[in-house]
C-alpha cells in the first residue's frame, strides 16, 4: 500500500470515531509486514478512563487476529497540528514494533513521519524486567 493510501485509510476512520466528550476524532491505520492493514478510531466513554485511543483500537484488532509484525502506522486528526500518538499508545506500539514508522496527519491532510524511537526515547521495555520474555 502506498503511504498516501495508508493515510487515506486513517483519515476515513475519523468518521467512525466515538468522541462525544472531547469532540476530537482520531483515526489510525496500522500496516503489517505482510501488507494487512488494521484500522481504528478512538472510542470514548462517559466514565472517561475506559476510553481507548485510535491507535490502540487498531493494535487490539491486529493482535487479536494474529498479527504483531507492524511496519507503519498512520494517525489522523482534524487539528492544525499533526496528530501524534499519546504516550500510552507509544508504549503499546513499542511492545510489538520498536522499529515502526509513525505517520502523523493534520486536518489539512498534511503528514510528517517519525520513528517510534524519536517519539519515545529512553523507553521502558521488557529487557528491564528480571524475567525472560
Ligand atoms: O494517541 C491518541 C491521543 C488521543 N486520542 C483520543 C483520545 C480521546 O478520545 C481524544 C482526546 O484526547 O483523542 C487518540 O485516539 N489517540
Ligand atoms: Zn493514545
UniProtKB/TrEMBL annotation:
This enzyme scavenges exogenous and endogenous cytidine and 2'-deoxycytidine for UMP synthesis. InterPro entries: APOBEC/CMP_deaminase_Zn-bd (IPR016192), CMP_dCMP_dom (IPR002125), Cyt/Deoxycyt_deaminase (IPR050202), Cyt_deam_tetra (IPR006262), Cytidine_deaminase-like (IPR016193). One of its GO terms (molecular function) is identical protein binding. It catalyses: cytidine + H2O + H(+) = uridine + NH4(+); 2'-deoxycytidine + H2O + H(+) = 2'-deoxyuridine + NH4(+). The active site is at 55 (proton donor). Zn(2+) binds at residues 53, 86, 89. The keyword tRNA-binding does not apply. Belongs to the cytidine and deoxycytidylate deaminase family. GO terms for cellular component: cytosol. Its cofactor is Zn(2+). NCBIfam families: cyt_deam_tetra, PRK05578.1. Residues 1-127 form the CMP/dCMP-type deaminase domain. It comes from the Bacteria. Keywords: Hydrolase, Metal-binding, Zinc. The keyword Zinc applies. This is Cytidine deaminase. GO terms for biological process: nucleobase-containing small molecule metabolic process; pyrimidine-containing compound metabolic process. Pfam families: dCMP_cyt_deam_1. Its EC number is 3.5.4.5. Substrate binds at residues 42-48.
Amino acid at each position: 500500500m502506498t503511504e498516501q493510501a495508508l493515510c487515506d485509510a486513517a483519515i476515513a476512520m475519523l468518521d467512525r470515531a466515538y468522541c462525544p466528550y472531547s469532540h476530537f476524532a482520531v483515526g489510525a491505520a496500522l500496516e503489517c509486514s505482510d501488507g494487512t492493514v488494521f484500522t481504528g478510531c478512538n472510542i470514548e466513554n462517559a466514565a472517561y478512563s475506559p476510553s481507548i485511543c485510535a491507535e490502540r483500537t487498531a493494535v487490539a484488532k491486529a493482535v487479536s487476529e494474529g498479527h504483531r509484525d507492524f511496519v507503519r502506522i498512520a494517525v489522523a486528526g482534524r487539528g492544525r497540528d499533526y496528530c501524534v500518538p499519546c504516550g500510552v499508545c507509544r508504549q503499546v506500539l513499542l511492545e510489538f514494533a520498536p522499529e515502526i514508522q509513525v505517520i502523523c496527519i493534520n486536518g489539512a491532510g498534511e503528514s510528517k513521519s517519525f520513528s517510534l524511537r524519536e517519539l519515545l526515547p529512553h523507553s521502558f521495555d521488557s529487557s528491564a524486567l528480571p524475567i525472560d520474555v
